[in-house]
Design goal:
The chain has about 240 residues and is an alpha/beta fold. It folds into 2 domains: about 140 residues, 3-Layer(aba) Sandwich (Rossmann fold), CATH 3.40.50.2300; about 90 residues, Winged helix-like DNA-binding domain superfamily/Winged helix DNA-binding domain (Arc Repressor Mutant, subunit A, Orthogonal Bundle). The chain is built from 11 helices and 8 strands. The termini are far apart. InterPro entries: Sig_transdc_resp-reg_C-effctor (IPR016032), Tscrpt_reg_LuxR_C (IPR000792), WalR-like (IPR039420), WH-like_DNA-bd_sf (IPR036388). GO terms for molecular function: DNA binding. Pfam families: GerE (PF00196). Keywords: DNA-binding, Transcription, Transcription regulation.
């Protein structure tokens, strides 16, 4: 006996919006994929497929509607890619926060339908190329949010009390956790001079100690957090240039 024939992957295309159904009538799948196109919501039949393309002008609305319904099938076990007109693509991108397998425009799908069907049959995710930047931005945002804060960088233009440049320089070093002696060494001041500037910061800002100065700067938005993926910090030489 020869080797057993490889079981075909099953992919279903669903379009329940009558005015768009004609776009999909000529769609053909590769020979190694068992494919069908339907315009109804026959859930038991749809559940026999491994992956589904679902057309909707409003994918987010459709998902919300389906979540309110009772289903006999666990659709989370299926790969589902939504198709939507190109003008709705970016507005529909929030569905990528849900457990779907992708999002493509109607126009791109019709151009590359066979390839798209094959990709969904073989791979876990399919995304419109123009949306890659959104996905990359979200990954970066989450990475930044989870990364520890490396330092707080003073944004001088946000400071809303009258401080001299020397005091702003010292405030930055206080934010960096430097001691009085370290600040004096970094800026070539005497310890006495640094103490005088710190006392003036406390008085002008209206706090009771140097810790209060730092807390006030952070709470009032005078700083921008720099996280561990950034450089460890601005060298003291850069602060000296502002003196």
């Amino acid at each position: 006996m020869g080797p057993a024939a490889e079981e075909k992957r099953r992919v279903l295309l669903v379009c329940r919006e009558e005015s768009y159904a004609h776009h999909f009538e000529g769609v053909a799948a590769p020979e190694n994929v068992e494919f069908d196109f339907v315009t109804n919501d026959n859930e038991p039949y749809a559940s026999t497929f491994d992956a589904l393309f679902i057309f909707s002008c409003d994918p987010i609305g459709l998902i919300e509607e389906e979540e309110r319904r009772e289903h006999l099938i666990d659709w989370s076990t299926k790969k589902i890619v939504f198709i939507t007109p190109a003008e709705n693509l970016e507005a529909s991108a929030d569905i990528l926060y849900t457990p779907v397998a992708g999002l493509v425009s109607l126009e791109k799908f019709l151009l590359y339908a066979g390839r798209a069907i094959e990709i969904l049959a073989d791979y876990p995710f399919l995304l419109e190329p123009e949306l890659n930047y959104l996905l990359a931005s979200e990954v970066k945002r989450k990475k930044q949010r989870l990364a520890p804060v490396e330092r707080f960088l003073l944004q001088r233009e946000r400071v809303d009390v009258p401080l001299r440049d020397a005091e702003l320089n010292i405030l930055q070093l206080l934010l960096d956790g430097r001691s009085t002696k370290e600040i004096a060494d970094d800026l070539y001041y005497s310890v006495k001079t640094v103490k005088r500037y710190i006392s003036n910061l406390i008085r002008v800002i209206g706090t009771t100690d140097r810790t209060g100065v730092v807390v006030h700067a952070i709470r009032n938005g005078w700083v921008e957090p720099y996280r561990s993926e950034h450089a460890a910090g601005i060298p003291v030489s850069a602060i000296k240039e502002n003196m």
